[in-house]
Amino acid sequence: MKDLVKKDLKYIWHPCSQMKDYEELPPIVIEKGEGCYLYDTNGKEYLDCISSWWTSTLGHSNKRINEAIKSQIDNIEHVIFANFTNKPAIELAEKLVSITPERLTKVYFSDNGSSAVEIALKMSFHYHQQRGHKNKKRFLAILDAYHGETLGALSVGDLDLYSKIYKPLLLDTIRSEGPDCYRCKYNKNREECSAECFEHIENIVKNKHDEICSIIIEPMVQGAAGMKIYSPIYLKKLRELCDKYNIHLIADEIAMGFGRTGKMFACEHAGISPDLMCLSKGLTAGYMPMSVVMTSEDIYNEFYGDYSELRAFLHSHTYAGNAMASAIALENLKIFEEDNILEKSKEKGKLIKKLTLEKAKDNPFIGEVRSIGMITAIELVKNKETKESFNWKDRVGYSIYKIALEKGLLLRPLGNVLYFIPPHTIEEKDIKIMINKCFESISEFFYNYR
Ligand SMILES: *Cc1c(COP(=O)(O)O)cnc(C)c1O
Q1: Is 252 annotated as a binding residue?
Q2: Structure pTM?
Q3: Is 113 in the pocket of ligand 1 (CB under 6 A)?
Q4: Distance 181 CA to ligand 1 centre (A)
Q5: pLDDT digits (tens, 9 = 90+) for 246-264
Q6: Contact predicate 444/83, CB 8 Å
Q7: 48 is in an annotated binding site
Q8: One CATH from 3.90.1150.10, 3.30.70.330, 3.20.20.70, 3.40.50.2300 for 1-61+342-449
Q9: Res 151: pLDDT
């Protein structure tokens, strides 16, 4: 392992990392994965509580998907997607149209989440330009949003950590306050809430709707912001508002799609259809990069015409419609249906929530446990009464992450928020291990903290 690590650090610049941290905590070389477990080159095992950045919905090295890859590879790995197509991509598109909300009838392929967000933004802007809504040039997004790292995606995102330095390069996005349920200004508990906070976005849209081409949102859960869960009522109101003012609603389901919230797509909680929907992460069960933008007949038709009319959407990515990734995604969706993954994961999600709540009960540093579907998050706070956060520079989450790693748990907190988003296939015994070790790590950290 040592030689590999040395070479890694010599040649590789890792994502989302301060590389200096690797002096103290070098990268762990994973040799093998199976189900919820990863194994490093020394044979040490790690329980993957976060599905390797929210992708691995069915666990690592899934037998059926492995077989699907083997049978696809002997046919075709990849083929140009302009004027050519391939069977897995066609079947996947048909399947996606059948399982996503009804307004979505067309599938535009790409290869990562940020690209999907760029595509959705460009399509919406382009649509309105062609329709003659020349002033509809701006996007609206809410506070704490995360939509990816490319410049367009960063522009609609709102996490300073990722975007602050690039502000001079970014689009002039209109920003509204969004739901902030743990620190709700209206002092509502979740049962009483009727999304009173919606008035912010409503007022902005009333005043500026002729400048706005679309509103982009992560439905139900703001993932990167710390798994901030909000009411479906907010989404319902948002759909109505967008309809009223001729604004597209872009649902960024990149993280929450494919069952994470207990429904196949998070929009289903509110019973709404967006105009554009971005999918990636769980689409290929963590096997290969792929993303899609699903869109409506109305948007598609706006781009349909004779070549000389110059109304085509000429955006492209080389690996669009990749046959291998499509075959994997297709098998993933088959497994979801045949193995009843969604139904089974509901029970598991409930168990994770229950056990977490039990353990968290008397901990003075746990401000909130919040949960939806397969996601349970623990927000650590300095003061439970005032809900004061730890300073991000204290790196509380990161310290607990390191302790947990020693115990064979891959946690990767978001700032001061620890969370579980394990593969849907996790077993009960591993759920217990996950929660026990996580709370041992929390206790150890705070024992020294006081
Ligand atoms: C991960 C994520 C993205 C970006 O996807 P990449 O593949 O990392 O570019 C966009 N939006 C949301 C909600 C995400 O969770």
Answers
A1: yes
A2: 0.98
A3: yes
A4: 23
A5: 999 999 999 999 999 999 9
A6: no
A7: no
A8: 3.90.1150.10
A9: 97
